[in-house]
Amino acid sequence: MKTVYLCDSSIEGILSGVYTAWASKKGHDNVMLRLKDDGITMELFCQYEEVPIDSQKSDKVIAAIRTKISEEAYEVVYKAALSNDLDRADKIYRFLIWGFHTGASIVSMLQIQAVYDIFHMCRFVDNETHHLTGFVRFLEMEGDLLVSRIGPKNDIIVLLAPHFADRLSGENWVIYDANRKKAVLHPAFRPWYLTDFLSPQWEDKITKSEKEDEYEDLFRRFRKSISIKERTNPVCQLNHMPLRFRPYMPEFSNGIRDV
Which segments constitute the DUF4130 domain (predicted)? Predict the structure, then answer.
């Protein structure tokens, strides 16, 4: 009978599951990792065991990856854990089986399905991170606070934070992931940090500055003044500015849809 270990979706939860599955000594073909509450129907003839987050176990797995495989291998595992792939926990486990057997060269062996799966997830995460470095928009709130709302498919807020911490090091800003209800907070000239302890009403308590409304109005007038109706190209606009980014972009507020 196959044992399915149900783990938390965080990197610590997934690696706790990896440690537990490996330490069970039931054989790699006889175990599987899945995320809790992934919405997938339970299979017959499988034994399900829930794995709690254990920082000591996850730290041991991280140390083993870095010393026995490579630092690059840990980086791709970390990025894969940020993916929205529901099977990412088991794919990471299969990658590590090959990694501990092969060593540092495993990251380039794309002919192996387990390695290709990790590569595919990392590419998706990297592409979305790259896009959002250009599509993230900040609104100025009262008290000189800059706030941005995003809704990424992958859990990439920690990958975006260093970019904006460098670009806006002297500003107080927040990037809020509306899909996962977590945020990166950056006090001016201080390190950023991640939190998911935000009250449901926190957005309602933040009020835009009057100056921000003036800028938005000026931008709407500017767009209207330069637009040429005969040259409107919705297909081209979709290629350069996907629909899923637009609900979080101030320039598409108040009914604005194209230039």
Answer: 88-251
